[in-house]
Amino acid sequence: MINISEKNISTKKNITVDFFYSNLKEKINIKLLNNESGFNNLITEQNLHRPGLALAGFVDLFTFNRVQVFGNTENRYLQHLSEEKRIEVFKKIFEFDIPCIMLSDGNNPFPEMIEFANKKNVCIFGSDYSTTKLSYIISDFLDDQFAPSLSLHGSFIDVYGIGMLFVGKSGVGKSEVALDLVERGHRLVADDVVILTKKGEGILMGSGTDLVKHFMEVRGIGIIDVKSMFGVRAIRFQKRLEVIIELEIWDKDTTYTRTGLDDTVLTLQDVEIPYVKLPIVSGKNLTVIAEVIAMNYLLKHYGYDAAKVFQNNLLKRIQNKTDNVNRTINYFEHDFE
Amino acid sequence: MIETTVKIINNAGMHTRPAATIVKHAAKFQCEFFISKDGFNINGKSIIGVMTLAAEKGSEVTLTFEGPDEKEASEIILDFFNRGFDEL
Lengths: 337, 88
Description:
By secondary structure, chain A is of the alpha/beta class. Chain A has two domains: 13-145, HprK N-terminal domain-like (Udp-n-acetylmuramoylalanyl-d-glutamate--2,6- Diaminopimelate Ligase, Chain: A, domain 1); 148-309, Rossmann fold (3-Layer(aba) Sandwich), CATH 3.40.50.300. In chain A, 32% of the residues lie in helices and 26% in strands. Chain A has helices spanning 17-28, 52-55, 72-80, 83-93, 111-119, 131-146, 174-183, 226-230, 286-301, 306-320; strands spanning 9-10, 15-16, 31-32, 42-43, 48-49, 67-70, 100-103, 123-126, 149-159, 162-168, 187-198, 204-207, 215-218, 222-225, 239-240, 243-249, 265-268, 271-280. In chain A, strands 1, 9, 10, 11, 12, 15, 16, 17 and 18 form a nine-stranded mixed β-sheet that branches. Chain A has a five-stranded mixed β-sheet with strand order 3-8-7-6-5, with helices on both faces. In chain A, strands 2-4 form a two-stranded antiparallel sheet. By secondary structure, chain B is an alpha+beta fold. Chain B has three helices and four strands; from the N terminus they run βαββαβα. Chain B has helices at 16-27, 47-52, 70-82; strands at 2-7, 32-37, 40-43, 60-66. In chain B, strands 1-4-2-3 form a four-stranded antiparallel β-sheet. In chain B, 41% of the residues are buried. The chains are: A alpha/beta, B alpha+beta. At the A-B interface, strand 1, strand 9, strand 11 and strand 13 of A face strand 2, strand 3 and helix 2 of B.
């Protein structure tokens, strides 16, 4: 089993507005509408807030430390106020330490708003997206940024589209299996250090680190770069984790599954991941077995579970007690190949 | 289990050459060996892992040893850290 301690988990406490802006500006085409003085403000929460009530004067429970999204409602409300009243509203709002403001639907900020924002070092961003779409995209980004990430020792490979993580003791041959799979056309996500981040409920996404990317160490050779050596088809940057395979030297006291009827799972970050323990014995081709595991997983995913089908056939035979065991076919036709 | 925190004291930090030596020492022992820093808890027997930490001068890392020969392993490896990876 894999040992996971607190030390394997890291969580971001905050991100700067600068980081937020530079990551999202091209993705959703947001523009900075005032000066850059608020770039060092920190975003500490993944949730968003629509400050409608706060604008109307009710600031109890105003979650000012979230990204504030001004949609059409907020804009229309501010529009119907007189200029003096608006200044009063902004004065009250900007008393709070707001990280940044996001205007949706292509709304333009009022001159008073820009003035206050510059004075209080708050950035105002504008986007043409609708509030719902914008909120969804920003939430998704912030959720990802603030999700705890788990670093594990292993090799992570996409085998026929199935994200497979190989774990096991150092020197057991994880990297060699990875290399062999890459040679057979599968794609390496990360070797040695894999970072897993929870994405939504029940999904763990894995990738490597920015320093290591697709470099790997092979005992006796040293460090190699899989991308340069095998080309771009041999790598990918991220993959959902779907199966964990633990490699271990064959241990006569451990029982390995023979039927595959009882699925074992490993729980990582509250996500259950199918788990297979593979003994290493001489003459065993782990690469092919990895491919078979991936295909079996795919078959199960599409509704065919070989172990269950076989079990049903057997039960039917036992219940009916009609025939003895026969050849697959009753009559050999004249096919003497 | 032996757990100890150690400071990187050589100028170049934990770069390729010291990483290789740490891994070489660690591989001689049966015990599990982990180095952790900033939410990364990496296997001390994997050179890529050790280098991932990119530990600079002055940073602190936590070493964890667990297994039958943990005492000998920790002595040798800790000594190597304290000698500034022989680069002082």
